[in-house]
Amino acid sequence: MNFKQTKTWSQIQDYFQSIKDKNLIEFFDKKRLDYTTFDFNGIYFDFSKNYIDKKLIDLFVSLAEEIDLSRAIEEMFQGKKINFTENRAVLHTALRSQSATEIIVDNKNIIPLIHQTNKKIKRFTKKVIDGQWKGFTGKKITDIVNIGIGGSELGPKMIVRALKPYRNHLNIHYLSNIDPNQLDELSEKIDIETTLFIIVSKSFSTIETLTNAKSLQKIYHKNFIAKHFVTVSTQVEKAVEFGIAPENIFPMWDWVGGRFSLWSPAGISIPLAIGFDNFQKLLKGAYQIDEHFRKTKFKENIPFIASILSIIYNNLFEFETETYIPYTEKLKYLPDFLQQLLMESNGKSIDKQGDKVNYQTGQIVWGNIGTNAQHSFFQLLHQGTKKVPVHFIGELKNTYTSFSTQHLMLLSNMIAQAEALMKGEKNENHYKNFEGNRPSTTILFDEIKPEYLGSLIAYFEHITFLQGIFWDINSFDQFGVELGKKLAQKIYSETKEMNISNTHDPSTKFLMKKLME
Amino acid sequence: MNFKQTKTWSQIQDYFQSIKDKNLIEFFDKKRLDYTTFDFNGIYFDFSKNYIDKKLIDLFVSLAEEIDLSRAIEEMFQGKKINFTENRAVLHTALRSQSATEIIVDNKNIIPLIHQTNKKIKRFTKKVIDGQWKGFTGKKITDIVNIGIGGSELGPKMIVRALKPYRNHLNIHYLSNIDPNQLDELSEKIDIETTLFIIVSKSFSTIETLTNAKSLQKIYHKNFIAKHFVTVSTQVEKAVEFGIAPENIFPMWDWVGGRFSLWSPAGISIPLAIGFDNFQKLLKGAYQIDEHFRKTKFKENIPFIASILSIIYNNLFEFETETYIPYTEKLKYLPDFLQQLLMESNGKSIDKQGDKVNYQTGQIVWGNIGTNAQHSFFQLLHQGTKKVPVHFIGELKNTYTSFSTQHLMLLSNMIAQAEALMKGEKNENHYKNFEGNRPSTTILFDEIKPEYLGSLIAYFEHITFLQGIFWDINSFDQFGVELGKKLAQKIYSETKEMNISNTHDPSTKFLMKKLME
Q1: A95-276 sits in which CATH class?
Q2: Fewer CB atoms near the end CB (10 Å): N or C, chain B?
């Protein structure tokens, strides 16, 4: 059942009519912060500058009961095959479970498997970090290159940048694009004697990843491949054939999707960058929000409150987009990560019954860093004709004792933007008038440390999941990427062989001809 | 007069009703490519996979006549004060004029001023590149740090990355954010003995820029400031007080807006990176499209055709966004540049008569690099409920002779995505069905060289301008950024002095308290 089929939905629509033209500031009764702000182990969530109130939350709680949301949540955690189009369980939460409770997939408890894999990762990362792993000339490893694209890059890259104060001496690079320009930039930065490459590809056949890996493989004599390449893949045979030692092949599982895989061996660049103990803390922080999500009643459940805002903006106000603005360079890759997480998961049109939906699903997610974004597109956020719910994210602790003024200015700007968007300011000169009533959410970290960052990412994962339940779609497949891949292979072969088939339209032929010139 | 007030608009609306549900492929008659593709000096524009046809173009040409678009274009080029809310001319085109024709601003011909300034830039950049400019210990300059934000960063940074094959030995860095994390990252990369800082701030008082500049100023003894700092600013007195030598102050002019300023001294990091001759070629390429724009009849006018697509998607289909996907790492910063150019220019709600518009203006612009984006948000583009017009941009020439396979795969992917978006593919399994009819534009460079890149950027500038004429708004002010700045100053002072005023709402107070803890 989707949200529109519930009895509560018409009540929500009616109630929405009565509040949609209110000024946001009118929502601020004395108790507003009590039910719209949350303090979760060092992260503060402020949802108060949004179009919600107690009544609307209660209505959504009723809606959640109607669609049996609690059961859907338990089904995910317990390993039911909720990715039904691919007949797979969805168990990124199992990867961070701190409990001994069994989780059964295909009649087998996966918890021991996860623990055993983590031990292997711990040994491997320690060996590299401590300098026991040597390159072909006997030198210690100084640089790690993670070769992977999509989920095999975006999460780990975001986290490794965010946790810079926790980093060891290893330089971590990410190679993803098939564009040789990226490989060229990378090659200026690394020394092949002291670089370890990690090929992250479940199938060991992602075109971008394998093409890049093979280009790099050529640099080394075949006897030395095992000293410079490891892999995260299910394809043991292909990996061995490539020259990788069997003990340096880390597993992937079909119950972890790419965009949820940073907690798995696919995120191995994270413990390499910050050490295994810190990686464990990241997992622990995620587990804490998992527990909160699973056990807290909806009206105090942080991912739940955040997810109903998605429905309010996407399906009642009918805004197409939302924007994420981290006011810290540490989280500069967060918007890219969230683009994949939310858009690849919920950019779908077919419901669980196989029918085309008659409502809007996945929002368009975009963003950029603050304060820079203020000098770029904030003009439109304040005075444009389109409304965009904004997510502000900041860190209270100043990492650098010598820059307290800058840090205070940075966060003052963030808070001021949220205030300005909501309250606006009347001016008789219409060009200088600010209408206000533009909603935003603010998330403040005490400090960006592994535990807290783990909690934040898991929070976004649960929002993604909840949206999919409301919209009655499968958030865990991605068939929409297949057609382009197939046509790319065809166009590549035809242009290479200088033989354009008649199946293409005139525009495609025109472009292919340019490619052949 | 805005587009809606024209007689032609109702005809356009009627005609739109008759074509909006057509399959895109049905538009392909034998002559389609003749009027939807353009070859401009080494850049190919393919608009054919969009909802336009000959009739619709003709209608928009009529509309353009009704609103006297030709006159609006001439007014810009001739220096009329079309930025009427600030009483300023808009003359970024004058900066690249290769003609001797006078352009008069406030009774003065500005062309000699531009030439004289360019000579000064040429001398200065040569001195630095040739190693005649020495730091305080007598060493040559190796690193340039451009301190600037918004328009003082986004254009130059994008171009310097795009023209990497034209770069000399100088390392160019961009420092923009007030976040100390960015300064910290920078400081790991530079040596203060061999670094030259360029402060780019018209007012010499942009908070981010000046705060960063002052932090860096402290590193040097005051007698050495002049050897390590130059500036682009109108505020000569403030710059001299900072310690900058008068001959190292480069001018800015109020007839060049920040987001159009890369052609001016604000773009000085470009000739430093690629040499003045290449910078001249960039200007020349822009001038070539200026001439095309100014002199070509509308139905063959490339920026005109592109701009009517904005109106079709924004005001007829009512899509909120458009996305830019460069299939080359060289243009990885293009989406950020375009976000500012388009959204800061046209994210406005008040028309030229001072009234609130009753139609949509500025689109939301977002994007990311291909093929990476295919593994991230392309799922939504293919199968989501929201339609997003896509702009693909690629480079035909392979910069690296050794990577021809990769390069061909990269461009095959780009062309395949455009084909897949338009044509879709039927599948009885609804989850694997692609509806198609998703429009896109493809721009192919023979090669990303200075001339061609100059043409491309000027093309986007003219689209921005044309949108503003259709929507009857001033594209050249940005009052929408002021309220946030003002409130940030207030919040900064109050939190610093631990004294929160009662003017703030409870949410803002809550966040300010966290900041004070």
Answers
A1: alpha beta
A2: C
Task: With beta carbons less than 8 A apart as the criterion, state whether B252 and B234 touch.
Answer: yes
Distance CA A371, CA B212 (A): 13
Do the Cβ atoms of B466 and B307 come closer than 8 Å? Answer: yes
Angle ∠(B451,B454,B459) on CA atoms, nearest 5: 130
What one-character DSSP code corresponds to residue B262? G
Query: What is the number of residues in chain A?
Result: 517
Geometric angle at alpha carbon B257, from B253 and B259, rounded to 5°: 135
Distance CA(A144)–CA(A198), nearest Å, equals: 7
Chain A (400-429) residues lying within 8 Å, Cβ to Cβ, of chain B = 400, 402-403, 405-413, 415-420, 422-425
Domain spans in chain B, listed from the N-terminal domain onward:
3-66+296-477, 94-276, 483-516
Interface check for A362 against chain B (CB to CB < 8 A): the answer is yes
Residues 27-86 of B with CB under 8 A from A: 28, 32-33, 37, 44, 46, 48-49, 85
Domains A35-53+319-452 and A95-276 are alike in CATH topology = yes
Complete edge-to-edge strand list for the sheet that includes strand A390-395: A37-40, A43-46, A440-445, A390-395, A321-326, A364-367
Structure-block tokens of residue B365:
């612009």
Look up B126 and say whether it is catalytic: no
Chain-chain contact of B343 with A377 (C-beta, under 8 angstroms): yes
Instruction: Determine contact: B359 vs chain A, CB below 8 A.
Output: yes
Q: Is the pLDDT of residue B401 over 90?
A: no
**Element containing residue B322 per DSSP (H, E):** strand B321-326
In terms of residues, how long is chain B? 517
**What pLDDT shows up at residue B27?**
98
pLDDT of amino acid A1: 87
The residues facing A198 across adjacent strands are: A146, A230
Radius of gyration over alpha carbons of chain B, in Å? 24
Assigned token pair, A83: 């990715």
| Active site (catalytic) residues of A | 344, 375, 485
Domain A35-53+319-452, CATH homologous superfamily name and number: Glucose-6-phosphate isomerase like protein; domain 1 (3.40.50.10490)
Amino acid at position A387, single letter = K
> pLDDT by residue (tens digit) across A199-249?
999 999 999 999 999 999 999 999 999 999 999 999 999 999 999 999 999
Query: Rounded to an integer, what distance in angstroms lies between the CA atom of residue B97 and that of residue B77?
Result: 10
3-state class of B431 per DSSP?
A: helix
Tell me, what amino acid is at B270? I
Residue A401: pLDDT over 80: no
* DSSP code of residue B487: H
B residues 244-283 closer than 8 Å to A (CB): 258
Q: What is the pLDDT of residue A111?
A: 97
Evaluate whether B209 touches B223 at the Cβ level (below 8 Å). Answer: no
Query: With 80 as the cut, is the pLDDT of residue B29 above it?
Result: yes
Mean pLDDT for chain A overall: 97
ipTM: 0.98
Instruction: Indicate if B375 belongs to the active site.
Output: yes
Query: Six-digit token pair at B344?
Result: 């800061």
Helices (H), A130-224: 154-162, 180-187, 207-217
Instruction: Summarize pLDDT for A326-365 with one digit per residue, the tens.
Output: 999 999 999 999 999 999 999 999 999 999 999 999 999 9
Distance CA A454, CA A456 (A): 6
CATH topology of domain B94-276: Rossmann fold (3.40.50)
Max Cα separation, chain B?
76
Query: B420 to each of A481, A504, B467, how far by Cα in Å?
Result: 10, 10, 29
Q: Which amino acid is at B367?
A: G
Q: Which residues pair with A445 in a beta bridge?
A: A43, A395
Strand ranges (E), A28-75: 37-40, 43-46
Average of pLDDT values for B401-408? 88
Return the CATH class of domain B3-66+296-477.
Answer: alpha beta
Query: What chain A residue is nearest to B212 in terms of C-alpha separation?
Result: A406
